[in-house]
């Protein structure tokens, strides 16, 4: 009998389509709800950004107004000073306060130390100058009277400007008026004040436009902490006289930043910087009691510190997205300062989400329940009876005509006539089919016998072909296995040879390091003994020479025996040469100490483990060890070494291994310069032999070390194999071919870095070493 073909039930396609319609409807509603939620979130996000921008602009306006107060006071002082000069001529009678000036006893200065009624210390400024009152010219006296006339405005500025430390006028006529009043014992005019920014930036050559200027932030010498100065030059028509200035501490700016509305958000950061990239105000990074001024970059997150210039070049008063942060900046109109605000973009997103209505998403489960209920009713009253009708048709077609009777109770009454009619139709057709089946069975028996014979022959052929194919596949697998084993053995042998050579080289370097460290230690003790005694020996010798000089001074005519002995030993030459001899011994001992220290630094037996070290110290130690090879010799001139060190932090590395890399690279550079054909004298003058070493920290916080020479360079075929084990271009007995291979392994595998070679034939070679300055512990071998 032929095998029955399994056909997918038609009702499955029907119900699957129905379920897909329901799913599509629910998905559409879900997408629409999510879209509405997103539009509401986007509107809320833009509103939060707009509010942040508005608050920032309001705080910028407030800071401008606060700074304008200081600018207005300094302008008022300038106007009052120049008005007094314009309305008072030299030679006018002295004011009452000028009459209280006194010359300081024992000093070439005068000062206002004793204040008499009707004046008090709160009403006047302390005034001191160089020279005497009797020799004061009318022009200088007029300048002093002008400074005295500014006392009232000095007092007003002190009362109205918060955190104002000093108000003063510094004249080119060698005097200064300083408010609040201090005596000459606490503050006396010194000419070194002319080198300060509050005077120097007002000079005509530095400020030809006579504009108001602001200084750098600095530490007050009187102990009032960090402060900044605003000043303006004073002119008598076209003649420069001096500068009037206000000093105030940074506390007033810090108080403004701390009380700013945007600062209430803990994730928002508001700060002030000046034109010198100094940090003037910050909620917690700046205090007036700090000893040093911090750079502006420290107020930014680590990702943005290298982008400060780009941030300040962006459009002002606009919200700019930089990496994952939102940044605003505003240049003040009354001072060359910038108000900067940054906040993580994530904080704005969270605020927008917290203010967004979740009604659309909450309605989704209710809508789902409605769809489920509708689907259930449709399935019960229509879909399920239709499915049973289809099943009944299939059952009746297979000869089970009584199946309908067993399910009759589960069928709605309106559907029962359809079931009965279908049962009758299939019963009539079934009797006709039985007659046809009898004739068909006879034909099938004959066809089955013929088919059996054909199947037997086909089976035998298939078995034979399968056996041949299996034997062929087995033979190919054996051949492939043998080839793979051969390749594995060759690879293992090569790796074993490389490992053996690296172990031998490593052991040699370890032994050499121990030997160098031991020799350095043994030499260090006697050298320290000699070096430590040279200073006392020099002092003793000098004392003996002084004693001889004293004897010669008091006994110019010695006895004959002493005179003969002095002449025999050439006493005058000995007195002149002995200090030089002691100095030469001092220099020699110092040189031996430097060599011993370099040997100990290079061996680094105490730093075989991973730790943070100074890379420059390792390079310098290696150069000292190789100094003999760098000096001029009969067969070749000296090799110059130029160093261009960057400002590197301490680098985490295996110091001994890294010194081995420096030794290998520098030795190869020296060998290349020595093996180069002997150039002429003109060629040496035009292009002397040299090695250039440079270091810097790139933007990825990786230390870059470049070692280059102007030797003959390498052809491409040599450059491609420079890091291969056992490859060398040196004569037999001069190189093992393992130095650069081991160096490459130390940099790439042990330090997670890179070692590249750049070489141009005829121009030279450069090796570029790049390692992270801070290693991950799980990345170290």
Helix content bin: 40-55%
State Rg.
Answer: 48 Å
Into which percentage range does the β-strand content fall? 15-25%
Structural class: alpha+beta
End-to-end CA span = 71 Å
Runs in which pLDDT lies below 50 for 5 or more consecutive residues are: 1-7
Broad shape: flat
DSSP strand count: 21
Q: How is the biggest beta sheet arranged?
A: 9 strands, antiparallel
What's the mean pLDDT score?
81
Q: Tally the helices.
A: 19
Task: Describe this structure as you would to a colleague.
The chain has 781 residues and is an alpha+beta fold. Helices cover 53% and strands 15% of the residues. It is built from 19 helices and 21 strands. It has helices at residues 10-87, 96-99, 138-149, 151-160, 197-200, 251-258, 308-313, 345-354, 359-397, 403-406, 416-554, 560-568, 571-603, 615-625, 627-630, 655-675, 681-686, 716-720, 739-750, and strands at residues 102-103, 109-111, 126-130, 164-171, 175-179, 213-214, 218-219, 226-236, 239-249, 269-274, 279-281, 320-322, 325-331, 337-344, 611-613, 640-644, 651-653, 690-697, 702-709, 754-760, 764-772. The strands form four sheets. Strands 1, 2, 3, 4, 5, 6, 7, 8 and 9 form a nine-stranded antiparallel sheet that branches. Helix 1 (10-87) packs antiparallel against helix 9, helix 11 (416-554) runs antiparallel to helix 13 and helix 14 (615-625) crosses helix 16 (655-675). It is flat. It starts with 9 loop residues before the first helix and ends in a 9-residue tail after the last strand. The model is unreliable at 1-7 (pLDDT under 50).
């Amino acid at each position: 009998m032929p095998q029955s073909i399994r056909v997918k039930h038609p009702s499955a396609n029907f119900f699957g389509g129905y379920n897909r319609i329901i799913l599509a409807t629910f998905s559409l509603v879900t997408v629409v709800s999510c879209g509405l939620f997103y539009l509401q979130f986007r509107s809320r996000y833009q509103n939060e950004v707009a509010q942040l921008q508005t608050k920032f602009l309001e705080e910028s306006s407030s800071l401008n107004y606060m700074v304008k107060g200081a600018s207005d006071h300094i302008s008022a002082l300038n106007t009052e000073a120049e008005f007094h000069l314009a309305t008072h001529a030299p030679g006018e009678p002295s004011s009452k306060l000028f009459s209280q000036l006194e010359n300081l006893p024992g000093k070439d200065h005068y000062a206002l130390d004793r204040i008499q009624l009707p004046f008090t210390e709160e009403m006047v400024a302390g005034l001191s100058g160089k020279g005497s009152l009797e020799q004061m010219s009318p022009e200088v006296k007029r300048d002093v009277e002008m400074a005295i006339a500014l006392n009232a405005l000095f007092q007003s500025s002190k009362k109205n400007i918060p955190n104002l430390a000093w108000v003063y006028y510094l004249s080119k006529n060698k005097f200064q008026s300083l408010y609040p009043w201090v005596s000459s014992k606490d503050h006396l005019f010194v000419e070194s004040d002319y080198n300060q920014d509050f005077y120097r930036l007002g000079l005509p050559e530095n400020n030809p436009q006579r504009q108001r200027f602001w200084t750098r932030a600095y530490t007050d010498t009187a102990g009032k902490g960090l402060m900044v100065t605003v000043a303006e030059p004073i002119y008598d028509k076209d003649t420069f006289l001096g500068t009037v200035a206000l000093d105030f501490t940074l506390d007033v700016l810090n108080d403004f930043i701390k009380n700013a509305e945007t600062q209430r958000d803990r994730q928002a950061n508001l700060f002030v910087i000046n034109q010198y990239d100094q940090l003037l105000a910050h909620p917690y990074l700046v205090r007036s009691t700090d000893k040093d001024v911090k750079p502006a970059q420290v107020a930014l997150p680590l990702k943005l510190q290298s982008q400060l210039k780009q941030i300040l070049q962006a459009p002002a008063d606009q919200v700019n997205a930089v990496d994952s942060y939102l940044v605003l900046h505003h240049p003040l109109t009354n001072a060359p300062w910038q108000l900067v605000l940054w906040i993580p973009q994530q904080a704005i997103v969270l605020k927008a989400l917290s203010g967004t209505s979740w009604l659309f998403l909450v309605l989704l489960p209710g809508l789902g329940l409605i769809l489920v209920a509708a689907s259930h009713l449709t399935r019960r009253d229509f879909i399920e009876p239709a499915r049973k009708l289809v099943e009944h048709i299939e059952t009746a077609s297979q000869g089970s005509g009584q199946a309908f009777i067993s399910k009759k109770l589960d069928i709605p009454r309106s559907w029962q006539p359809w079931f009965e009619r279908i049962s009758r139709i299939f019963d009539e057709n079934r009797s006709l089919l039985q007659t046809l089946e009898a004739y068909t069975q006879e034909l099938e028996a004959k066809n089955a016998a013929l088919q059996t014979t054909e199947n037997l022959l086909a089976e035998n052929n298939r078995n034979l072909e399968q056996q041949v194919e299996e034997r062929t596949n087995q033979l190919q697998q054996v051949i492939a296995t043998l080839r793979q084993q051969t390749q594995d053995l060759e690879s293992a042998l090569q790796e074993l040879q490389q490992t053996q050579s690296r172990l031998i080289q490593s052991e040699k370097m370890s032994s050499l390091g121990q030997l160098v460290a031991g020799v350095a230690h043994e030499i260090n003790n006697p050298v320290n003994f000699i070096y430590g005694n040279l200073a006392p020996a020099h002092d003793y010798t000098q004392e003996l020479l002084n004693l001889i000089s004293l004897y010669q001074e008091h006994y110019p005519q010695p006895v004959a025996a002493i005179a003969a002995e002095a002449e025999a030993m050439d006493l005058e030459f000995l007195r002149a040469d002995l200090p030089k001899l002691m100095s030469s011994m001092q220099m020699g001992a110092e040189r031996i100490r430097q060599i011993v220290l370099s040997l100990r630094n290079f061996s680094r037996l105490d730093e075989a483990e991973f730790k943070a070290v100074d890379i420059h110290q390792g390079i310098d130690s290696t150069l000292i060890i190789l100094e003999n090879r760098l000096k001029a010799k009969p067969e070749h001139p000296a090799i110059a070494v130029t160093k261009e060190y960057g400002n590197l932090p301490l680098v985490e590395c295996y110091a001994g291994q890294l010194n081995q890399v420096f030794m290998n690279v520098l030795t190869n550079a020296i060998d290349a310069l020595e093996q180069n054909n002997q150039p002429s004298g003109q060629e040496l003058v035009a292009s002397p032999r040299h090695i250039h070493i440079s270091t810097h920290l790139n933007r990825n916080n990786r230390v870059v070390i470049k070692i280059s020479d102007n030797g003959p360079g390498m052809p491409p075929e040599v450059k491609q194999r420079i890091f291969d084990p056992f490859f060398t271009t040196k004569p037999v007995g001069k190189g093992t071919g393992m130095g650069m291979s081991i160096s490459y392994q130390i940099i790439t595998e042990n330090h997670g870095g890179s070692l590249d070679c750049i070489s141009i034939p005829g121009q030279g070679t450069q090796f570029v070493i790049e390692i992270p300055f801070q290693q991950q512990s799980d990345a170290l071998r």
